[in-house]
Amino acid sequence: CFGSAAVQRNPSFSMLNSDDINYFKGILGDKNVIQDEDRLLTANTDWMNKYRGSSKLLLLPRSTEEVSQILNYCNSRSLAVVPQGGNTGLVGGSVPVYDEVIINVGLMNSVISFDKVSGILVCEAGCILENLITFLDTQGFVMPLDLGAKGSCQIGGNVSTNAGGLRLVRYGSLHGNILGIEAVLANGDVLDMLGTLRKDNTGYDLKHLFIGSEGSLGIVTKVSILTPPKLSSVNLAFLACKDYFSCQKLLVEAKRKLGEILSAFEFLDNVAMDLALNHLEGVRNPLPPSLHNFYVLIETTGSNESSDKEKLEAFLLHAMEVGLISDGALSQDINQASSFWRLREGLPEALQKAGAVYKYDLSIPVEKMYDLVEEMRTRLGAPTKVVAYGHLGDGNLHLNISAPQYDEKILAQIEPFVYEWTSKHRGSISAEHGLGLMKANEIFYSKSKNTVQLMSSIKKLLDPNGILNPYKVLPHSLST
Ligand code: FAD
Ligand code: 2HG
Ligand code: ZN
């Protein structure tokens, strides 16, 4: 576990005592003040089993008012807190580093309203993403966000990480789709920014501060989201390419020829494919066995079944003729489409099952992206496996290094090399997962000194005692 190795506990934080517990029981009732060891172990441990805190308390508020009372009290007592959603975050941001109180809004999981004309959904932050997807489906709409962790992650967690996912290439980021937010500040003040308007230029649009701030500026309690209508024709192709250059060219062609119906463009390399086949139950390669180096998933979503399919088929035929793809399968029904997606979405799980994993989530210009993977392979050699996949359509590489166990020597071979390489190519060291604990000290690889200084001033203004998700996001030298 990497838990607290790199940072000291901030001595200005109080230690939890029995008066605190009684106070919380007074607000929330005994049932929602959790001290049970098993439940605390789960809440203290992150999805990768890599970060573990030692919190003695998990609080489950049922309303904004309760969140407000909790934070107001914690602030006055200097008790540090960690906002937690589905705990699927991949940068150690959602679990305590030391004894921070964990606050999870999972019981706040109601849909508040849905406007069928505008497609605007207003809901509480604890709604599980998959439940929102299902709800919208019954209304004839879709969520502009989809990701492999949908069964556990909460919309509040998605907003707080500014999660990207599989459909960003079509619908854009949450900075565009989130129309409003209600958030509770460290001192308990409730900020009602829960607008439901497409256009509202009345001063600074402060909701954006909370999108992607990883629980460091406030607890998100409600959100309003613009959701697009569900279209009738969805097609999914699973393709093989002989080299990375072909994947890249295929992307350029897909944007040009499928532009208005393109809804996902994902890639994985053959090391990722092997990993999926070895570690995911029931998953098989949709293509006949052959030596393919790369795989691409192209999804189209449109409103005209026959013409969309015709367009995709013509595109694929041409790509095959000019050698951009070497083989391919078009899903014939919804079950086959889910099996294609399962292979791609299951990769984080396959890596988790394979052993220790060093995870890097990078934005890199598409032309250069795979150079890093190859350089990393040369650097590391056996017994590590360098696994590459990601949202190629968004220029987002998921570079994962799988090893039998965590080893400082391997880590020293990877870092800071991977960050320096990314920075040199003007990329981002966090495309979509955030900085959390893992990369708080690495922020300067992607942000200038003055920018980080301003972030720190904003943090101090909103959370002067630094109780909200300490040790995360901002460099430790500035945040304690
Ligand atoms: P948590 O993990 O609980 O928390 C994440 C961060 O948000 C923490 O810093 C936490 O303090 C903060 N937070 C949580 N809830 C709140 C709240 N209500 N108010 C304020 N702060 C809060 N990410 C992507 O971007 N794209 C992907 O495709 C993707 N796929 C994934 C697939 C798998 C299998 C897994 C395990 C993770 C994946 N992730 C992906 C990473 C993860 O960021 C997302 O799963 C998700 O956005 C996290 O939501 P959560 O509710 O689990 O939040
Ligand atoms: C995905 O796209 C997630 O599957 C996780 O963002 C990425 O495992 C990873 O590195
Ligand atoms: Zn991703």
From TrEMBL:
What Gene3D superfamilies does the record point to? Answer: 3.30.465.10, 3.30.70.2190, 3.30.70.2740, Uridine Diphospho-n-acetylenolpyruvylglucosamine Reductase, domain 2, Vanillyl-alcohol Oxidase, Chain A, domain 4
- GO MF annotations, alphabetized: (R)-2-hydroxyglutarate dehydrogenase activity; FAD binding
Q: Which UniProt keywords apply?
A: FAD, Flavoprotein, Oxidoreductase
Q: Which PROSITE patterns match?
A: FAD_PCMH
Q: Which residues form a coiled coil?
A: none
Give the domain of life: Eukaryota
**Essential cofactor(s):** FAD
Tell me its EC number(s), please: 1.1.99.39
Pfam families in the record, alphabetically?
FAD-oxidase_C, FAD_binding_4
Q: State the GO CC annotations.
A: mitochondrion
Task: Kindly state which reaction or reactions the protein catalyses.
Answer: (R)-2-hydroxyglutarate + A = 2-oxoglutarate + AH2
For this protein, the record's InterPro entries field holds:
FAD-bd_oxidored_4_C, FAD-bd_PCMH, FAD-bd_PCMH-like_sf, FAD-bd_PCMH_sub1, FAD-bd_PCMH_sub2, FAD-linked_Oxase-like_C, FAD-oxidored/transferase_4, Oxid_FAD_bind_N
UniProt KW Methyltransferase keyword:
no
EC top class named in words: oxidoreductase
Show where the FAD-binding PCMH-type domain sits.
51-230
What PANTHER family has UniProt attached to this entry?
D-2-HYDROXYGLUTARATE DEHYDROGENASE, MITOCHONDRIAL
The UniProt similarity line reads:
Belongs to the FAD-binding oxidoreductase/transferase type 4 family.
What is the designated name of this protein?
D-2-hydroxyglutarate dehydrogenase
